[in-house]
Specification:
single chain; Rossmann fold; Zinc Finger, Delta Prime, domain 3; 2 domains; five-stranded parallel β-sheet; 8% strand; elongated; binds zinc ion
Length: 324
């Protein structure tokens, strides 16, 4: 039993702006909440849904209407989510029938998660409702980026942009303490929670150890380890990401920026930072190329093996050049 809006951490200016619109009775009928997933857009939306349906005052959080929103049982609120990665036209029909029901004097809200996944047919079916919704009918659409939304939808909505959460807020919401996780999560609670699981911790450890092996001239051991780590695609993509971060960390470190993501591997970062910008740059670019290859379903073991041998060569060439 609670006022959902009070649970939101951050996004003060966006909330303030919308509260003001409510006060002045000009709350937009179609809202587009833009921002990466896991930062609290949905919670803000649910908070305002309470405001809109509340039987007492200002989304009190305790009247029956507010409670039903919190429990996901509100007859005034339709929650649309994608199925198998798409929002098909039958959802548009569901929405249209929902808003055509008689509901005198009460608000009706449609929350569409991942609205960028509406196909064109769905979007077209909704255009008229989005443009001229019946009285006291509100649409809130959640999307990761403005570019992902069809222009026809975009032009009919008021856009509210949500930024990534600062580290301190991320830490507060997720209760996660490990610095590398907070820094890798790009301001998203969802991503931080994914990163926290133990398997990933171990995977990070081992994928960074690979570079220690490589620097110590033991590429065979490095390759043996990597083959185990990249047996599944998800693991392979994680390894790519961790390596990209490591190389970026090393580049920063080289230029005196010591605030790095993988602080507990600073011994490794220091060693890498001894190499030239060109070496680190090449390896970094190649690590992004590697990620593309994995996404393109290339043979994972082979792609990683090639990457590590190439890296080994780049290190050797650089070392020889320095000794000449
Ligand atoms: Zn209430």
């Amino acid at each position: 039993m609670a006022q959902i809006l009070k649970k939101v951490v951050g996004h003060e200016s966006q909330i303030q702006m919308l509260l003001q619109a409510l006060e002045q009775q000009r709350f937009p009928s179609t809202l587009l909440f833009v921002g990466q997933s896991g930062i609290g857009k949905k919670l803000v939306a649910q908070g305002f849904i309470q405001y809109l349906v509340c039987e007492k005052d200002r989304g009190c959080g305790s009247c029956p209407a507010c409670l039903r929103v919190e429990n996901g049982q509100s007859e005034s609120f339709l929650h649309i989510t994608p199925e198998s990665g798409v929002i098909r036209v039958d959802k548009a029909r569901e929405i249209i029938s929902f808003i055509s029901l008689q509901n005198p004097g009460k608000a009706r809200i449609i929350l569409i998660e991942d609205a960028q996944l509406m196909n064109e047919q769905t979007a077209n079916a909704l255009l008229k409702s989005l443009e001229e919704p019946p009285e006291r009918t509100y649409f809130i659409l959640l999307v990761p980026s403005i570019a992902s939304v069809l222009p026809t939808i975009r032009s009919r909505a008021q856009v509210v942009r949500f930024g990534a959460l600062p580290l301190a807020q991320l830490e507060k919401i997720s209760q996660i303490k490990e610095e590398w996780i907070l820094k890798s999560a790009q301001g998203s609670v969802e991503l931080a929670e994914q990163l926290q699981n133990e398997d990933l911790s171990l995977l990070r450890q081992r994928s960074l150890d690979i570079w220690v092996d490589l620097l110590e001239g033991a590429p065979e051991r490095a390759i043996e380890t990597v083959k185990e780590l990249v047996k599944d695609r998800q693991g392979a993509l994680q390894v790519c990401r961790i390596w990209q971060q490591l190389l970026r960390d090393s580049g920063y470190y080289r230029h005196g920026v010591h605030e790095v993501i993988h602080k507990d591997f600073v011994h490794l970062i220091q060693r890498l930072a001894d190499y030239s910008d060109s070496v680190l740059g090449t390896l970094g670019v190649e690590a992004y190329g590697l990620e593309q290859d994995i996404r393109g379903n290339l043979d994972r073991s082979l792609a990683f093996e090639n990457y590590l041998y190439q890296s080994q060569n780049v290190f050797q060439t650089d070392t020889e050049a320095r000794h000449e």
